[in-house]
């Protein structure tokens, strides 16, 4: 997996790189502003994901994001911030970002979210969405209203919590001592119980209804 991490705070970049580079399958390139991001995209091999700091030079609110998203053959982009408002995040999702990462996330959660997004899913921290008023649908589709709280088994609750943490099926299986096909079956069952179509909507439904 090739990542481009763009943040003007060198300490944060170095800390994040040190942690992520422990993963043997992750290659990281860094940038300090939007201009550097554009230059790297033009001259470098394709990336699987770009992480853009919301407040770094050249972002101009979401102007820099728009510039990167409109670049031909642009890879998926996620915003990372410690100060962004939910209104800004909502707007970023309508523009087409793959996800939003809050700088208060633990390193392990950040890694799980990055892998989650690299697989094609969208991500937003559940804790971020549970603050304040209920958020509109930021991901895809609508969250169905459940007439009563689903009764999940302990195993289903464990799998749902892992989904909320941004873990992949492989990681969930490893943590729970189960095979990946078994985890896929649990996810399919959870989606049916929650009345949703995919794992991303399952996470949103879990947040909306106070699960697991």
Structure write-up:
The chain is α/β, with parallel strands linked by helices and 212 residues long. It has 2 domains: 2-129, Rossmann fold; 154-208, Orthogonal Bundle (Arc Repressor Mutant, subunit A), CATH 1.10.10. 46% of the residues lie in helices and 11% in strands. The protein contains 10 helices and 5 strands. It has a 5-stranded parallel beta sheet, with helices on both faces. It is globular and about 50 Å long.
SSE blueprint:
Layout: E1 2-6, H1 10-20, E2 27-31, H2 34-43, E3 49-53, H3 63-69, E4 77-81, H4 86-95, E5 99-102, H5 107-118, H6 126-129, H7 154-164, H8 169-176, H9 180-194, H10 199-208
Parallel strand pairs: 1-2, 1-3, 3-4, 4-5
Please sum up the structure shown:
The chain is an alpha/beta fold and 212 residues long. 46% of the residues lie in helices and 11% in strands.
Q: Percent of residues in beta strands?
A: 5-15%
Major pleated sheet? 5 strands, parallel
Helical stretch tally: 10
Q: Given the helix and strand composition, which structural class is it?
A: alpha/beta
Fold-level CATH name of the largest domain: Rossmann fold
CATH class of the largest domain: Alpha Beta
End-to-end Cα distance, whole Å, is: 31 Å
Largest sheet, spatial ordering of strands: 2-1-3-4-5
The count of strands amounts to 5
- Summarize model confidence as the mean pLDDT: 84
- Overall morphology: globular
């Amino acid at each position: 997996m090739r990542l481009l991490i763009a943040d003007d705070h060198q300490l944060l970049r170095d800390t994040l790189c040190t942690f992520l580079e422990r993963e043997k399958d992750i290659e990281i390139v860094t940038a300090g502003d939007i201009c550097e991001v554009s230059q790297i995209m033009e001259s470098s091999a394709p990336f699987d994901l770009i992480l853009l700091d919301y407040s770094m030079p050249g972002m101009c609110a979401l102007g820099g994001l728009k510039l990167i998203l409109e670049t031909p053959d642009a890879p998926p982009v996620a915003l990372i911030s410690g100060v962004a408002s939910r209104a800004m995040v909502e707007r970023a999702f309508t523009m087409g970002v793959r996800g939003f990462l809050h700088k208060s996330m633990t390193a392990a959660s950040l890694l799980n979210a990055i892998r989650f997004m690299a697989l094609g899913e969208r991500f937003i921290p559940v804790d971020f969405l549970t603050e304040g008023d209920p958020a509109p649908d930021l991901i895809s589709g609508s969250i169905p209203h459940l007439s009563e709280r689903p009764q999940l088994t302990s195993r289903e609750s464990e799998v749902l919590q892992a989904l909320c943490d941004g873990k992949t099926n492989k990681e969930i299986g490893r943590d729970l001592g189960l095979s990946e096909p078994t985890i896929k079956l649990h996810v399919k069952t959870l989606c049916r119980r929650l009345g949703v179509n995919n794992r991303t909507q399952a996470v949103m439904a879990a947040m909306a209804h106070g699960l697991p």
